[in-house]
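Take a specimen:
=====
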Amino acid sequence: MVRQYNNVCFKIMKIFNKLKKIDNIEDLKINSIYLSEGMGFLIPISSYYLNQKERILDLTKWRNNNSFAYPTVFIATYKSTKSWLKKLLLIDKNKILFFIVDKQEEYIGHIGLNIVDEKEEIIEIDNVSRGLSKSKGIMSIATLDLINWSTSVLNLSDIRLKVLKSNKKAIKFYEKLGFIFLSEIALFKIKNDDGFNLYTEIEIKSSNISNANLSTPSDFFIIMKYEQKNNQVGQNKL
């Protein structure tokens, strides 16, 4: 089945694609999202970074250090991270990821966007991870400024996110930024050779996974929506 995209989402995908094809750091900086309060900038993760070993090692380390926040748990390596970057992130029309860079130009973490419903024009804050414990408040500012960019540049107003119910710290962080609870989705653990995945019941049934125990959820996705109109970045310093 061929997916149908409306004009708004099609334009967003063109923006994502253009940013992800940039192959030099100068143009990446020109196309970055500059953060409030002079905190730094969000730099698109593009094909340029396929040849930046230090940055791939950063992504690998941060993924392993923050594995508790993901529904898929495994030991990331330089090779697997580079493959994920090349074969998944950079070719996924619905997604984009940004490095969070502070005013000293240190790479602090990353944050992304994912179009989850083209018809309803819903976009999610996605793949948020802090790598370095520096530049207090930058994660709050990065999240709010990416929301502002999504509304002002991408012309989207329905901003959501998914977070594991077990990640209490992240839930409190998002609540302070203006996100409210919408719903929760049960997740069930399926072990594999590399670790485990948390799947929804729909994913399990559609993938014909036979060894799933659907009697007791292992965790839940909490679906949250951004509602706050007046951004108060200073309320939560993370």
Observations:
- The mean pLDDT is 93.
- Helices lie at 7-20, 25-30, 53-65, 78-87, 138-152, 168-177, 201-206.
